[in-house]
Design goal:
This protein is 63% helix and 4% strand. The protein is mainly α and 370 residues long. The chain has two domains: 306 residues, no CATH class; 40 residues, no CATH class.
Length: 370
């Protein structure tokens, strides 16, 4: 039995998301260019093309929510299975109430995200049988183009390059999906009902009147975007940091590549980049508070930190040096190396006698503008 009420999740998500018009964004206008983009990404990155590129799909917010709820099911299954095993006089009613509550929470999260996402390479890390999808959110792309004052078709092409880069990453590094899935499974399996070996969060709050000192600690963690740390021990938190580092490389490499490939295709690339950076940094207080509570601010940091890392490696040693990061799990940069790319370069040079020298085609990549 599935504890989470997924029907409620879909309904709540749609209610929050709204249903703006598609803005005349059509997959047919982009699909003919997709293979060319993939070939350009492959040639630049040194990563092999997928045997078959997923078809580009332009979807509305409701369809995007449905796709992501489907992907989330195997992620949340281990947690819901534990809840389903609870027995006792109130187990049935409490399970139903919990299912509605969890469904509403999951739906609210996907509903909020559906208002911001422009595109997505949808890959199920815990379900190898599920084929990846390339999704473009038509309403959001049209709305973003209007709000940013940029050409809609160029924005659509640019975002497409980003998502296709993800497809090439997972094809050129076939170990990546399993590696990320393994870390995610380890994290989910290790989630504690207690908080760092102490009573549960509800117990720590002491009902309606929590201990003032404990409450202050919880508030400070919330302000720092570390609510997840309340349910993880420090060892598990290290795993979270490793996952974040891997995702920073994945997102930052896509950001780096979409600009390099887009430079030959999009006349307004500089303007697009400046507008996108304003969009990411210009959100008001309500969005900032929500992002901190949900941990969404980490996504923005992944883009920024990961791109700076990729830019630095390419500027020092060329694109082929950056290809080494996809050679296996041991080549992934650590959190510290992401912040100081010279440390990663030195480690890779020490392990690779064929490391490309800066003289072998150094490529200058312009810095991120704000």
């Amino acid at each position: 039995m599935d504890v989470i009420d997924w029907g409620t999740a879909q309904r709540i998500g749609e209610l929050i998301a709204g249903s703006p018009p598609s803005g005349h964004v059509r997959a047919a206008s982009v699909e003919p260019l997709a293979r060319d983009f993939a070939e350009r990404v492959s040639a630049y990155s040194g990563l092999d093309l997928p045997a078959a590129l997923p078809a580009l799909e332009v979807v509305d917010r409701s369809s995007w929510i449905a796709a992501n709820l489907k992907t989330m099911r195997p992620l949340l299954a281990p947690l819901t299975e534990r809840m389903d095993k609870d027995t006792g006089f109130l187990a049935g009613p409490m399970r139903s109430a919990s299912g509605l509550l969890l469904g509403a929470q999951v739906g609210a999260l996907t509903g909020v995200l559906s208002q911001r996402v422009l595109g997505q390479y949808d890959v199920a890390l815990l379900d190898d049988s599920a084929a990846p999808r390339l999704l473009l959110l038509g309403p959001n792309l049209a709305q973003a183009a209007r709000n940013l004052g940029v050409d809609r078709d160029e924005l659509v092409l640019w975002v497409t390059i980003h998502e296709i880069t993800h497809a090439v990453q997972f094809s050129g590094a076939p170990w990546l999906r399993g590696h990320l899935g393994g870390m995610l499974k380890e994290l989910i399996d290790g989630l504690q009902v207690t908080v760092s070996g102490r009573p549960s969060l509800i117990g720590r709050l002491g009902g309606l009147v929590p201990d003032p000192g404990e409450l202050r600690n919880i508030v400070e963690l919330a302000r720092g975007g570390q609510l997840l740390r309340l349910t993880l021990g420090e060892d598990r938190w290290k795993l979270v940091e490793r996952m974040q580092a891997a995702m920073s490389l994945i997102e930052g490499h896509a950001e780096h590549t979409m600009d390099v490939v887009g430079a030959d295709t999009l006349p307004s690339l500089t303007r697009l980049r400046a507008a996108m950076n304003r969009r990411r940094s210009g959100r008001g207080l309500p969005w900032r508070v929500l992002e901190r509570l949900l941990g969404l601010e980490l996504k923005l940091r992944q883009y920024e930190t990961g791109r700076r890392f990729c830019d630095a490696v390419v500027n020092d040693s060329g694109p082929r040096a950056l290809t080494r990061a996809w050679s296996g799990p041991e080549a992934l940069p650590s959190p510290g190396e992401l912040e100081q790319p010279a440390l990663w370069i030195a480690r890779m040079q020490a392990a690779d006698s064929d490391w490309p020298s800066p003289a072998n085609g150094r490529t200058h990549v312009p810095p991120v503008t704000s």
